[in-house]
Amino acid sequence: MEEKIRVLHILGIVAGGGVESVIMNYYEYIDRNKVQFDFIVHNDNKIDITKRVEAMGGKVFKVTPYYKNPIAFTYGIYKVIKKHHYRIIHSNMNTLSAFPLFAAWVAGAPVRILHNHSTSSPGETKRNFMKYILRPLAKLFANHYLACSRLAGEWMYGKKMMDSGKVTVINNAIDLKKYAFNSAKRKALREKLGLTNEFVIGHVGRFMYQKNHDFLIDIFKEVSQNCSSAILLLIGDGPLRQVIEKKVEMLGLKNQVKFLGLRNDVQDLYNVMDIFILPSHYEGLPVVGVEAQANGLPCLFSTKVTKEAHLTHLAQFWDLEKGASKWAKEIISIKCERNKKAGEELRQAGFEIDKEAEKLVKFYIKLSTGGGT
What we know:
Layout: E1 5-12, H1 18-29, E2 35-42, H2 50-55, E3 60-63, H3 70-84, E4 88-91, H4 98-107, E5 111-116, H5 125-141, E6 144-147, H6 150-157, H7 159-164, E7 167-169, H8 176-179, H9 183-192, E8 199-204, H10 213-226, E9 230-235, H11 241-250, E10 257-261, H12 266-269, E11 275-278, H13 287-294, E12 299-302, E13 315-318, H14 323-333, H15 342-348, H16 353-368
Parallel strand pairs: 1-2, 1-4, 2-3, 4-5, 5-6, 6-7, 8-9, 8-11, 9-10, 11-12, 12-13
């Protein structure tokens, strides 16, 4: 019997965000008789994936976070790779992958995969400064290249490299059946949340600059002035949550904005919503946008979200420069009916996890046999 391929995934932060959701989706559906995932994460994460990973046959290694000590973080990864003789390292930390991929290079791992899931925004001066310093280093120590979308690929690798075919796009695929609309769940969860006929606007995302919660609250303030039954559901956590909570209270919206925090039933909560909003400053290809569309929801994305996220006919894109008032008018005017063809549209676009997981298995097999060098 052939020995299964073990792939060491570098996640770093595990905070209920899109990147780990994508990787864990693939891990759940990949043929684990052929490929097994192990993980390196920070040792201070609020979410612990150890039990979930071990239940599927994998291992979790915890190291010092890069933001506390980059040298200890890099050395911790080096030790894991050397001790367990990993041959395939798959780093999902975008430009910060420079640290783990350097460790993998020093440790002699022959396959070093850089997987980019994001881009940048002019509004994050300090973060962008680090991104532009680390980007060439991440590419330097990698020898195989992935991206979640064409936009994310061009940002990390450049248009020329994307056109050359050296970069593989791995879709942020999901279990379409799991996210399909369910009227019974909608009724039960609405009752549980104390909702009846309210107009529910939904958002899923970490409370950080990228997701633009500040503008989202401005939009909702405008919506609430014209629609008294409007409710905003915010799912997620993050460093800016308290700032946003204070803003909501200051604007007198406390009874209309529900902070649901980190949840393990996000797939069910989409059923509660009438429309999904993502006014991000930048994105690669957001998995929450895929999930919301799979539920058949009308979606309003900012134009900073890649047009590759236009996977169903109910997705729209609006410029942030239009301002909160125009966004609010558009939200109120949208006919909130579920897209009954959502599953088929996403399947045709290549976002069914079963099929995409098979492709990823073939990708790893090709690398392990030397076919990807």
